[in-house]
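Bumping my old thread because nobody answered last time. Still need a sequence for this structure:
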């Protein structure tokens, strides 16, 4: 399995301080612009987005997702691979 974090992101999206549905809407728009095989890196601090809405979206679309929680910073990094 590919380590998505090791792929240089084609785009970085900062949704810190935003709550649902904005992070999901912004992720959807960003993913539409990416080509197959490209990675979107998302910085998010809304647990509902990180643990529920964005993973469900990725699963439905067939995108691979890796999530890294940065305890010291209080947010997550999400790496989404468009397949």
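Sorry it took so long. Here it is:
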């Amino acid at each position: 399995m590919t380590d998505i974090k090791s792929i240089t992101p084609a785009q970085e999206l900062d949704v810190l301080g935003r709550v649902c549905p904005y992070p999901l809407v912004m992720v959807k728009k960003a993913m539409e612009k990416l080509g197959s095989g490209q990675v979107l890196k998302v910085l998010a601090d809304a647990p509902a987005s990180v643990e529920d809405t964005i993973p469900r979206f990725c699963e439905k679309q067939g995108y691979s997702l890796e999530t890294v929680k940065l305890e010291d910073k209080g947010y997550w990094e999400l790496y989404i691979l468009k397949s």
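The mean pLDDT is 95. Let me know if any region looks off to you.
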